Recover the amino acids of this structure.
């Protein structure tokens, strides 16, 4: 049952559970009410079950995040759906200047439990303004958490934890994940197992038991994990190169401790992300690994990012820009000694 | 004028004058925006506000805070970064919070937030409202219209208090605003009220507001109150590019210049002395700790 749940259904159930558990939780967004149920159908059925808590708004991203901020100030909690992550740029001021700063700028801790869900990434042919990965623009803001869902993490646990922290947060959700299957506990696929390790919300470690050290440690956010799995399988079967994959759910302040032991022993470390290079999660993590493991690494940590261009609409052009399983596989092969 | 109202007008006036004086002496770090000439707006409005109403103030917000809390020491400590500061010295002049009173330094940002609090109040605490102070220049921000639209759609108890002083920093309203505030409110079907707050008295504007504000509380939907007012001082410190004859006219028309008599002189001296004592007290205090003053931190709404 739950084992065959699609990620979209899992998210829907997680939101439903959160709304049922707290009648001061609001869900806001554009076109999220029934019968439409949201552009990606993540909120389908929720406005029928929770008519008071689910609020459909006009096309006003800054305005609706502002409404969420006001609800939070008055003692409520709010989850906001951006129809596409690209549109979160319109709410940058409300998120960065109001929600995040209000936590501390008045000289006392002010809880601002506001979660902005962002359907992110390409590979759906939506073109340059509906396919970006904007995670990096929100990293390093005091009192603003950045998360990304994965096929391994439990989104109900994620939303409960994020709302409970009282700090505003962005949750990025790769659009392609929605239609994919959520992985049952422990089983990544017929070849690989996974465990959740480290501090909440946990880092998924995907591997074949008994192989230590791996030839390669791969580190990716949830949206790239599926492509990394495809690359790991191909590398193992065709090249006999073993990989261990680390998928943290938290992108700002990614926990290093689950990653360090394997990264220190592995033949190489490769970090893969979906957005363009330059001031990114992967670059920052690579720097932290270099600092923590200087003298122990076998070679420089390498970073794979999207090409330096907009995300084209045509499938063949989009494929050239975005990271593919083949990109990951080729990078690992080049670094294999 | 009612002596309490005049006291508050004079407290704000002498507070702002003392601040400019401290600035001139190099004792203020950073910047500040005084509300000289605009004192009547918060003094007229504040008695109509419930302690548990939300109030959103802005960069020119000293008068809003003083008229609601009569706390010149906490405010001055905040501006000077001294012990007992409202926001622990973190926020400074533009970022004050005391319970449900908040100010922020980004134009237009507060309107959607105020609408969000109004949504909460309409559903969970009917009878209360969210009041947001903006200037005429704030109407250049798109967030204003997103908020007005939702507030009107959902009939939220939102009171938009516009301090129309005819100038945004250095830009005259005529160079920045097409049409009128009344026309913009009308476009959303939002009630608009024009109130003259340029005179010395506050009872006329307050009486004009009493009924309409009560209707907002009872669920009639948002209200835009456009206060005609004058900015008699500079935008922040010494940056006033307006021609000398215009400044002379503003000063001559300023409410403070138009009042006299023994009762005025008595209250004027009283508030001048009060502010001087506050300045002596606060400037002698140790630096702010980064934590809000205890009485601010312990605030609780009357009933939630």
């Amino acid at each position: 049952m739950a084992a065959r749940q699609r990620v979209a259904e899992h998210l829907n159930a997680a939101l439903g559970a959160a709304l049922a558990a707290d009648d001061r939780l609001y869900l806001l967004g554009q076109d999220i009410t029934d019968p439409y149920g949201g552009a990606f159908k993540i909120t389908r059925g929720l406005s029928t079950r929770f008519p008071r808590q689910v609020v459909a708004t006009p096309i006003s991203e800054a305005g609706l995040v502002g409404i969420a901020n006001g609800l939070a100030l008055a003692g409520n909690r709010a989850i906001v759906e951006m129809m596409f992550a690209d549109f979160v740029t319109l709410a940058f001021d409300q998120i960065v200047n109001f929600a995040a700063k209000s936590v501390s700028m008045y000289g006392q801790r002010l809880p601002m439990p506001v979660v902005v869900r962002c359907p992110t990434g390409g590979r759906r042919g939506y073109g340059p303004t509906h396919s970006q990965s904007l995670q990096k623009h929100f990293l390093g803001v005091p009192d603003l958490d950045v998360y990304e869902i994965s096929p391994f993490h439990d989104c109900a646990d994620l939303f409960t934890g994020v709302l409970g922290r009282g700090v505003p947060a962005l949750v990025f959700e790769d659009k392609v994940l929605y239609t994919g299957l959520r992985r049952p506990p422990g089983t990544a696929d017929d070849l690989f197992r996974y465990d959740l390790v480290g501090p909440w919300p946990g880092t998924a470690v995907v591997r074949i038991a008994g192989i230590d050290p791996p030839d390669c440690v791969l580190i990716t956010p949830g949206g790239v994990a599926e492509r990394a799995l495809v690359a790991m399988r191909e590398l193992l079967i065709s090249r006999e190169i073993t990989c261990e994959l680390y998928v943290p759910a938290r992108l700002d302040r990614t926990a290093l401790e689950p990653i360090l032991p394997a990264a220190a022993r592995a033949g190489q470390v490769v970090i893969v992300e979906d957005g363009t290079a330059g001031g990114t999660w992967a670059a920052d993590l690579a720097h932290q690994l270099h600092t923590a493991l200087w003298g122990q690494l076998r070679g420089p940590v390498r970073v794979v990012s999207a090409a330096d261009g907009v995300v084209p609409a045509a499938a063949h052009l989009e494929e050239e820009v975005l990271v593919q399983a083949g990109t990951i596989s080729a990078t690992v092969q080049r670094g294999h000694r | 004028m009612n002596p309490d109202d005049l006291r508050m007008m004079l407290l704000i006036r002498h507070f702002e004058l003392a601040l400019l004086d401290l600035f001139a002496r190099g004792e203020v770090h950073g910047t500040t925006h005084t509300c000289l000439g605009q004192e009547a707006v918060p003094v007229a409005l504040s008695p109509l506000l419930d302690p548990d109403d939300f109030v959103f103030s802005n960069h020119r917000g000293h008068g809003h805070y003083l008229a609601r809390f009569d706390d010149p020491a906490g405010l001055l400590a905040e501006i000077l970064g001294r012990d007992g500061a409202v926001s622990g010295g973190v926020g400074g002049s533009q970022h004050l919070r005391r319970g449900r009173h908040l100010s922020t330094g980004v134009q237009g940002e507060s309107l959607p937030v105020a609408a969000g609090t109004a949504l909460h109040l309409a559903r969970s605490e009917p009878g209360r409202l969210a009041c947001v102070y903006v200037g005429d220049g704030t109407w250049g921000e798109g967030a204003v219209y997103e908020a007005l639209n939702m507030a009107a759609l959902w009939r939220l108890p939102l009171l938009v208090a516009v301090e129309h002083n005819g100038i945004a920093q250095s830009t005259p309203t005529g160079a920045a605003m097409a049409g009128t505030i009344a026309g913009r409110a009308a476009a959303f079907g939002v009630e608009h009220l024009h109130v003259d707050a340029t005179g010395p008295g506050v009872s006329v504007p307050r009486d004009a507001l009493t009924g309409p504000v009560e209707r907002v509380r009872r669920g009639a939907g948002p209200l835009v109150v456009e206060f005609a007012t004058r900015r008699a001082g500079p935008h922040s410190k010494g940056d006033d590019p307006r021609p000398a004859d215009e400044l002379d006219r503003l000063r001559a028309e300023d409410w403070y210049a138009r009042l006299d008599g023994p009762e005025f002189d008595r209250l004027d001296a009283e508030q001048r002395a009060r502010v001087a004592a506050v300045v002596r007290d606060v400037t002698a205090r140790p630096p702010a700790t980064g934590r809000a003053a205890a009485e601010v931190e312990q605030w609780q709404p009357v009933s939630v």
Notes: Chain A touches chain B at residues 52, 55, 57-58, 60, 62-76, 93-94, 97-98, 101-102, 104-108, 110 (CB under 8 Å). The mean pLDDT of chain A is 96.
